[in-house]
Amino acid sequence: MRRPSLFFAMLVLLVFSCESTEESSFTASSIVEGTVVKVSAQTGGQILQMDFDEGDDVELGATIAVLDSEKLVLQREQIEAGLDEIAVQHEISRNTLSQTRSAFDNVERKHRRIRELFEKKSASQQALDDISAAFDAASAQLNNARQNLKAVEARARGLRAQHKLLKRQLEDTRVVAPIAGVLTTKYHVAGEVVAPGLPIAEMIDLNEMWTKVYVSERLLAGIELGGDVEIRIDGTAESLTGKVAWISAKAEFTPKTILTEESRMSLVYAVKITIANPEHVLKHGMPAVAVMALR
C-alpha cells in the first residue's frame, strides 16, 4: 500500500515543478536562405558575351551580359536624321509664321482704316468688301501657319521621345547586376537569342541571409522584435548573431489541419531572422539552429 502512495506523491511533485518552471530560451532548427534575384534582359537580342561564370562573385552594377545592338543603332541614326529634317521644317515654319503675322497686321490696319472711312461715307462698299475679304484670308493664313508650326513641334517631340526610348534600349543591351552577390545559375550562353523580360542568370545575395522559425502561441510573447538570435551552424562550433526582423501577425497550423481541441497546440507564428554574413560563412540552403532568449 505504500508504493502507490509514493508514486502518487512523486507525480504531484513533477506536475507542480513543470508548471512553475518558465522557459528562458527557444531553440529551433531551420534552413538559411539568401535573397534570390533573377537577372533579366529588358530588351531582346542575341547575346554577344557573358562576362561571369557560375559561382563568381559579382559586384553591384557589373556587366553580366552584352546583347547585340546593331539594329538599335541603325534605328537611332534614322531618328537622328528625322530630327535634323524636322529642325529645318521648324525653322521654315517659324519664318512663315513671322511673315504671315506681318501680312496680317498690315491687312488688319488697312481694314480698320477703310471701315472708319466707310462709316464716314468716305469709302465705298466695294472697298470695304475687298479689304474684309483680304482680312479674312490673311486671318486664315495666320491660323494655318500657327497650326503648321504646332504640328512640326509635335512631330519633333515624338521623334525626341523615340530617341530617348532608343537610348534607353541601347543602355539595356548591357545587362548589369541588380545586387552584389554570387552568380549561381546561367540560363543562357553567348550566341543565344533572348526575348525581353526573360531571365538570363540567377544571383543570390550572401551578404545578408535570413531564416524562418515557427513559434507557438505560448512562447510568442517572449520573442522581442529586433532581439538578438544566436545562429549555430551544423558541423562547426562557429556561431553568428542574427536579428528578429519580423513576426507574423497571422497564425499558421503545423500541419495544416482543421482547428480542433486536439490540434490547438499546433498553432504557430512565423518569425523571420536576418543574419549579417559579410564573410559568406553561411550558404543558401545550409541547415542551422536558431537560439533565442525569451523575455
Summarize the structure in words.
- By secondary structure, the protein is α+β, with helices and mostly antiparallel strands.
- It folds into 2 domains: 24-67 and 183-293, Efflux pump adaptor protein, beta barrel domain (Elongation Factor Tu (Ef-tu), domain 3); 70-172, Helix Hairpins, CATH 1.10.287.
- It has 4 helices and 14 strands.
- The chain has helices at 2-20, 70-119, 125-172, 217-220; strands spanning 25-31, 33-40, 45-50, 57-58, 63-67, 174-176, 181-186, 193-194, 199-216, 228-233, 239-247, 252-253, 267-276, 287-293.
- The strands form 2 sheets. Strands 1, 2, 4, 7, 9, 10, 11, 12, 13 and 14 form a 10-stranded antiparallel beta sheet that branches. A 4-stranded antiparallel beta sheet has the order 6-5-3-8.
- Strand 10 (228-233) and strand 11 (239-247) form a beta hairpin.
- The longest helix has 50 residues, at 70-119.
- The two termini are 45 Å apart.
What is this entry, summarized?
The chain has helices spanning 2-20, 70-119, 125-172, 217-220, and strands at residues 25-31, 33-40, 45-50, 57-58, 63-67, 174-176, 181-186, 193-194, 199-216, 228-233, 239-247, 252-253, 267-276, 287-293. It is an alpha+beta fold and 295 residues long. The chain folds into 2 domains: 24-67 and 183-293, Efflux pump adaptor protein, beta barrel domain (Elongation Factor Tu (Ef-tu), domain 3, Beta Barrel), CATH 2.40.30; 70-172, Helix Hairpins, CATH 1.10.287.
